[in-house]
Amino acid sequence: MTRTFIASVFSWMSAALAITAVTAYLFGTDETYIRYLVSETGLTGLGYFVMFAPIGFVLLMSFGFQRLSQTMMTFLFLIYSVIMGMSLSFIFLIYAQSQIYLTFAVTAGMFGLMALAGYTTKTDLTKLGSILFMALIGIIIASVVNIFLKSGGFDYIITFIGVIVFTGLTAYDVQKLKRIGEGVEYGTEATAKLSIMGALNLYLDFINLFLMLLRLFGNRK
User: Fold this and answer.
1) Would you kindly state where each structural domain of the chain is located, as residue ranges?
2) What beta strand segments (E) does the chain contain?
3) Phi-psi bin for 150: left (phi > 0), alpha (psi -120 to 50), beta?
4) CA 60 vs CA 51, 53, 104: distances in Å
């Protein structure tokens, strides 16, 4: 049952990443599409929407988990992956495509190794997860502060710590999902919803790790 549950989680996560990647490529490389997001005067209404809407989707799925049906959870997750792709399309305006593809490959390798470590390790990562979550809160606060400070050195430190945090969270989240899989009943709506939420958590780990690595090693155009 555990392997079936984990396989379902990774299937949904992979599907969402594929949708996001295709959407980001289409909007980031085709001027016809990118004009829907950016005009000569700045972001369009849709551009602002795709920048901030993902946070709303995550909160809706997290807090509405008990009330939302499996179908609605699936729908929201897939729409979320499209909107995230539109939001991430802006990286094609900032970085060279070769750097984006290379960083994506590196991220996939790191993510895969840490996911395997989290699944196979016998060490309890619960305490590590708590520390990493606190560090994540610190990163968010520090990032907000640096919006006003505009310090390149501070931004580098935040990004470097972010890579470590999301690398560790990948292993922690996989181990947590493994434990969830050991206690769920196969074929129920509750289990299906848990697999969607698990996929969302891993998706966020992957995307954030990718963005941190791109900021750390990518050279802007």
Assistant:
1) 2-217
2) 38-39, 42-43
3) left
4) 16, 11, 28
